[in-house]
Write a structure and sequence with these properties.
8 helices; globular; alpha/beta; 242 residues; 4-stranded parallel β-sheet
């Protein structure tokens, strides 16, 4: 359970906070949506938590439990998918940030594991405009650097859902969660200009868009290591006095 729910006590948080000039909290945001026949509905949450744990292992941050249901409306055609509105997700993150601030944690990093959570960008923009310290991680550039370092073959455009990256991270972090089938489920649909209108079912019958057959545990390990390195700039930005 510590893979998903931090095991800190209040004393752990107090001790960590005493050793830094500004406390930074890390909030994983996942989803509960179809990921083809071989990855679990909780894949995005598992990925966000894996990234957040890697960060917490390298930086003195306050790791929070994940938000496990978010904006997965484009996957509504598949059984098991559950969504909340963008307004609700916006409010949840804002409430968490406000609660953290009241307890002396005035910087928040939202680690997003689901591409459909567009509203998280608005939350960060609005918070930053108010003078609050908040960041959204990873950016597309962070994923691209991680993709290159790990030797991921598929582009970020092709590797859209349940593909090489997500399969690799789960093969490394949660191999027990994968079921047979990723080796033979490759499907490419690079032109998705009507995705918001048609949803995923307009482009894929299986729910997969990407090349999961190329995934490996070693790639997953390198993806996470690269993201932890990229996080250093975010940490410096949020903890600086400027």
């Amino acid at each position: 359970m510590s893979d998903l729910v931090p095991a800190d006590t209040t004393e752990d948080v107090r001790t960590r906070g005493a050793g830094v000039s500004r406390q930074v909290a890390v909030l994983p945001v996942g989803s509960f949506e179809q990921h083809g026949p071989y990855l679990p509905l909780a894949t995005d949450t598992l990925v966000a938590c894996a990234v957040a744990r890697e960060i917490a292992g390298a930086y003195p941050v306050h790791l929070l439990p994940p938000v496990t249901i978010s904006c997965s409306h484009e996957h509504a055609a598949w059984p098991g998918t559950v969504s909340i509105s963008s307004v609700t997700l916006h409010a949840v993150v804002r409430d968490i940030a406000a609660s953290l601030s009241r307890s002396g944690v005035d910087a928040l990093v939202v680690v997003n594991g689901h591409g459909g959570n567009y509203v998280l960008g608005n939350v960060v923009q609005e918070s930053s405009a108010r003078g609050e310290r908040m960041a959204l991680f990873p950016a597309a550039e962070d994923w691209e650097a991680a993709r290159e370092r790990a030797g991921v073959v598929a582009s970020l455009l092709t590797d859209m859902h349940a593909g090489e990256i997500e399969t690799s991270i789960l093969l490394h972090a949660h191999p027990e969660m994968l079921r047979p089938g990723y080796e033979t489920s490759d499907f490419v649909a690079d032109d998705r200009r009507h995705l918001l209108t048609l949803g995923m079912s307009g482009y894929t019958d299986s729910g997969v868009i990407g090349r999961p057959s190329l995934g490996s545990a070693e790639k997953g390990k390198e993806l996470l290591a690269s993201l932890a390195d990229s996080f250093g700039t975010y940490f410096s930005l949020l903890t600086s006095d400027g």
